[in-house]
Specification:
- The chain has 574 residues and is mainly β.
- It is built from 3 helices and 32 strands.
Length: 574
């Protein structure tokens, strides 16, 4: 209750200070997403409450020497997919930040990322229900040009509580090019970095049962062992980044100590992650090539949990984030515990105007290829480990050995994405996309096998006048696996500067070879939305159905159940 009362009291004080001191500014935002749910047995939507909402109010007071802020969250009746642990309201985020020339100190809750996030990334992603901030302190020092040192410590948020484990760490980043005039003159930037993170978690009593066959007596011997769980788990990361001319290179390597957790089946094995990324760009051309290998890199501030909560680190998926509905129907989630080899290549090219391929207005072509494969893992006695379900078989052991450059037997994900964008007239622009996809549903979701699909998208935009624009989408997903074919259509009318009207429908139209698929699953998932914008205010009202499935961002996914009803969304920034 004290923290609940703290929010209005602090914000009133901050507001009064901002009015009295012209050098102090007050900013913030309000986000409220609401649903009036309806039951729909056909798609599995239920009506838990008459009214559901996820509401957030952020306020920040800023001065050249200090900063303060707090966030009120109201999820007493949360949206579908945010039940149970999300249920509640309060002020879980509050901080004070002070600055003195080359030093900055934050006390309270904060977010931080070291390097690419291989050993530390705390962040907020409301659509996924993620807020793994740290409650404690962070010190940032910049004693001289080209040197940045960070040190932090705290406990990690898990819904409305904080895990008992203490997370501490430090990061040193050196911009070497700041000290070499010749590199500055040539526009070359070289950055070197190193990080260390420690998790201190009190060991719980954890017992495992090991069975041994006794052929002589035609029986099985059961032996019970208590695991020696480590109090401290250390992780470190080194990286180098080079930017020169049109070329950018990034190399990074991280290692984590023995960390038996529920996610990896309580095995004793170091975790590793290595990444090499290169990009090249010049006028009209862009290239990207990157590869990543990870193994046993699930890093949690509570060893007994699984899912998106309590994650200390983050590994990017190396797959393209899709905005089209059917292209995002089967999104990939990074396999942190089992490990993976991931590759991504992308090329973009602009065909010049008034050429045979470019036409009158020019044309853009982008091709992306992503491939994710299992790493090589040789298990004891030739038995294969499976996540969670079979992990207890190797509890208390190192489980497997692995050769760094050798692939495993299974493909986790693959897609080839070709996008073509061309302006056909002054008023009309057309985007076309084709994607060939392979999605290992068993690996990502636990069942379903390999899904092969072909996805076609046509996206056209016609501008009638400076204030009126009509955009339409037609999408088709073809597959003989899982739930069969899908079609999607959308029409969006923009009446600048205030109004936008949107209607869409996604329909499961095809047949499937799987026995669980029948005519009762051919459902329409329709949506109608009206959006009004004025100044810093945005209001959206809608009605429709939403399909059950995974919502993903950057390789992190969360299951969202089916829902139907009226929606209302309000956003305000000041």
């Amino acid at each position: 209750m004290k923290r609940f009362l703290l929010f209005p009291a602090c914000m009133l004080a901050l507001s009064l200070m901002a009015q009295q001191d012209k050098k102090v500014t007050l900013s913030g935002s309000i986000q409220s997403d609401m649903l009036v749910p309806q039951s729909d047995d056909a798609i599995g939507a239920t009506k838990p409450e008459d009214f559901l909402t996820n509401t957030y109010v952020d306020l920040h007071l800023q001065h050249q020497d200090f900063e303060a802020g707090a966030r009120l969250e109201y999820l007493e009746h949360p949206l579908p997919g945010f039940e149970n642990d999300f249920d509640g309201w309060g002020v879980p985020h509050y901080y004070l930040k002070g600055r003195l020339s080359w030093a900055e100190l934050t006390v309270g809750t904060f977010y931080e990322q070291f390097g690419s996030g291989f050993i530390l990334r705390t962040y907020e992603e409301r659509s996924l229900g993620i807020d793994n901030s740290l409650l404690g302190g962070r010190l940032v020092l910049k004693p001289t040009q080209g040197v940045t040192l960070k040190a932090l410590g705290g406990k990690q948020r898990r819904y409305w509580k904080h895990n008992d484990a203490w997370i501490s760490g430090s990061d040193l980043e050196l911009t070497v090019s700041d000290w070499i005039p010749s590199m500055q003159q040539s526009g070359t930037t070289l950055t070197l970095g190193g990080s260390w993170v420690n998790k201190h978690e009190s060991p719980d009593d954890f017992f495992t049962v090991v069975t041994t066959d006794d052929p002589a007596n035609n029986s099985t011997i059961y032996s019970t062992y208590k695991l020696n769980l480590p109090r401290y788990v250390n992780a470190w990361d080194v990286r180098a980044s080079l930017n020169t001319g049109n070329l950018s290179l990034l190399a990074e390597y991280a290692q984590k100590g023995d960390d038996p957790t529920f996610a990896n089946g309580y095995i004793y094995k170091k975790g590793t992650a290595a990444m090499l990324s290169g990009s090249y760009s010049r006028k009209g051309l862009s290239l990207l090539l990157q590869a990543k290998r990870s193994e046993n890199m699930a890093f949690k501030s509570d060893r007994g949990v699984i899912g998106t909560s309590s994650a200390i680190n983050h590994l990017p998926a190396f797959t393209q984030d899709q905005t089209y509905a059917l292209a995002a129907l089967y999104p990939y989630a990074t396999q942190l515990a089992d490990g993976e080899w991931a590759y991504q290549a992308e090329v973009g090219y602009n065909f010049k105007r008034k050429t045979a391929l470019g036409g009158k207005y020019g044309m853009n072509l982008k091709v992306n290829y992503s491939y994710v494969r299992a790493i090589d893992r040789q298990f004891a006695d030739g038995l294969e480990h499976t996540s969670i379900a079979g992990s207890s078989f190797f509890t208390g052991t190192s489980a497997y050995t692995s050769k760094f450059f050798k692939w495993g037997d299974h493909t986790y994900y693959q897609d080839l994405d070709i996008q073509l964008s061309r302006k056909l007239s002054k008023a009309f622009k057309l985007n076309l996309m084709y994607m060939n996809q392979r999605y290992n549903k068993t690996q990502v979701e636990g069942h379903g096998g390999m899904i092969h699909s072909d996805i076609f998208v046509a996206d056209g935009k016609y501008q009638f006048n400076p204030k009126t624009t009509l955009r339409m989408e037609a999408q088709y997903l073809s597959t003989k696996d899982d739930e069969g074919d899908w079609v999607f259509g959308l029409a969006e009318l923009s009446l600048a500067p205030h109004w936008m009207l949107t209607v869409s429908d996604m329909w499961n139209c095809g047949d499937s070879d799987t026995s669980v698929y029948d005519e009762n699953t051919h459902h329409h998932y329709y949506q109608g939305l009206v959006t009004y914008n004025t100044g810093s205010h945005r209001l959206q009202v809608g009605y429709g159905r939403t399909r059950a499935g995974y919502n993903c961002s950057g390789g992190v996914c969360r299951w969202i159940p089916a829902q139907k009803g009226f929606t209302l969304s309000y956003n305000y920034n000041f």
